[in-house]
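pinned: reference chain
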Amino acid sequence: MSTLTRPSRAWLLPLLLVSAFLPYISKGAGIRVENLLGALAATWAGAVVLQRGRVRRAYAPLELLTAAILVVVVCSTVFSAGDATGLKSSIGRLDHYLRPLAVLLVADASLAHLDAENVDRLFVACGKLLLAALFLNTLVQFASLFFDIEPYVIAFRPSAGDATDMLTVAEMAAQNGRLVGIFNQPLEHGTAYAVGFLVWVELWRRRALSNITALGAGVGVFVGGVLALSKVFLLGGLPLGILLLLSGGVRLVMVLRVMLFAGLLVPALAWLLREWAGAESLLGLIGWLQDPKMLAYGLSGGRLGLAGSVGEEYLVLKTLRLFQQAPISGVGISGAGAIGDNEYLIALGEGGMVLLLLVLARQWLVVASSLRRWSTSPEARLLLSIGCVLIMGGMGGPVSGIPRCGTVLWVFIALLLPRVSSAESSRRMPLRALVPVGGGWR
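pinned: its structure tokens
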């Protein structure tokens, strides 16, 4: 097997992945290691792509759409902010739209000289890094069952607010038995663990992990995902991972390994159901899913399904009020700050129909790139599963760009795209080819 011998910056993607699990540099300014490293790496990558004048075909459509999303949001915010104060309050929120573009640019620039085999080796390395980080976070979650971990994880979470009696989202979630470790909220935690479980299934299929390591990582990801009670993991990543596992066929060795995994998992689950305060909520979620009237409530994490009709939902009503103000261009980030629980409603409020269509097009591109080969390529099935997490997770919040999980999502999307795309898409194309000429594309 060849090695990474040619000069490259392939180590940047693993570094970005690790940065998603690192603490804040300045809470007052809202800057994490993830922000600083992403900004520096993206600046370098953007300069490389512009200087080189070529982009990889596998990334070009997503880069173009993500850049268009950013431009629409900036323009909507500038024209609707009204004053400098409103514009200033929007700067931090732009991080959500910059993160996907930053990761895609870094992947485009840093993987330029790597062949398919080395990109695959980089995927395995990033997968192992993700599983290690999630396993450590699960240990933190497990420790929180026995003592107060807040003094030890405070550097990883944003400030609750100016009032001394205010709690972080993680602390409020813990009061309901939802344990998230270093993460700030169950949504971002569940998305990261959903991707982790899908990646674990692929590494297990390849036997890229020893039996002991695979079993330990699998139990860690499963237990950690359950402890947060995130619907993105329980109703998205977990069933998708099981389908992904079965899609490769059922062999005797897989049955034996699953039996061994279950043998370790059943005692852990039995103990959790007895000692964990969130066990009742987990059983309640199962009950909601069996009741058609509570299905929307359960799937949306209580954000939808409270009212008698869709038009009476509080999130929908808030979005409609903003939509009526500016249906095409939206009211910008500063004007739509009250919406935060649904990626598609946020897009409609902040950038109107234009932004919503662009976001939907980007979601579709991630999934569509894998559909042509999903029946023959395990990597295509993995990308399709991660794309489904991206789409379904958006029902609970803007998972494509929020801290930690946004970086995790796009790092693995970027690593899988060159392997899943056709040979033609893996080549590089000049930047000028992205400019429409005469009603078409050059």
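why pinned: The longest strand covers residues 24-26. The two ends are 38 Å apart (CA to CA).
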